[in-house]
Design goal:
Blueprint lengths: L6 H17 L4 H8 L8 H7 L8 H20 L6 H6 L10 H20 L8
Helix pairs in contact: 1-4, 4-6
Length: 128
């Protein structure tokens, strides 16, 4: 999946994803891991993204960001009346997933994110 985004699109994506990760109340190390940024990336890079620096034109980072957006959108649909529930749900053991969703995403990376997103939104695996 070769996704080319221009600088403005990558900036907007970074701002949206950073807001989501803040809402989820994650530690900086977890944010870096979820984004799949290269090892050795310092937490101050997250501050740069929050201030409008675009995400790198990196297919893995863009794909992870897409999954994070999808998960947040699904959580918003499921918990539309309580904005605090997504962060709570992500930290609570899930019977179907058989573990805590955020731990699944951190341990299994993109595959874990896909499992969480698919669990929340059955349309993720539909073909057009």
């Amino acid at each position: 999946m070769n996704v080319e985004l221009n600088e403005t699109e990558r900036t907007n994506l970074a701002l949206l994803v950073m807001d989501i990760l803040e809402d989820w109340r994650l530690a900086d190390e977890d944010k870096l891991a979820l984004l799949g940024l290269p090892e050795g990336t310092r937490p101050r890079e997250l501050t740069r993204f929050k201030r409008g620096q675009p995400f790198p034109q990196d297919e893995a980072v863009i794909e992870r960001a897409k999954h994070l957006l999808g998960i947040q959108e699904a959580l918003h649909v499921v918990f539309c009346r309580n904005p605090n529930m997504p962060a709570f749900w992500l930290r609570t053991r899930n019977r179907v997933l058989r573990q805590i969703p955020i731990e699944l995403m951190l341990s299994d990376g993109l595959d874990g994110m896909h499992r969480v997103w698919s669990h929340l939104d059955c349309t993720v695996n539909w073909d057009d």
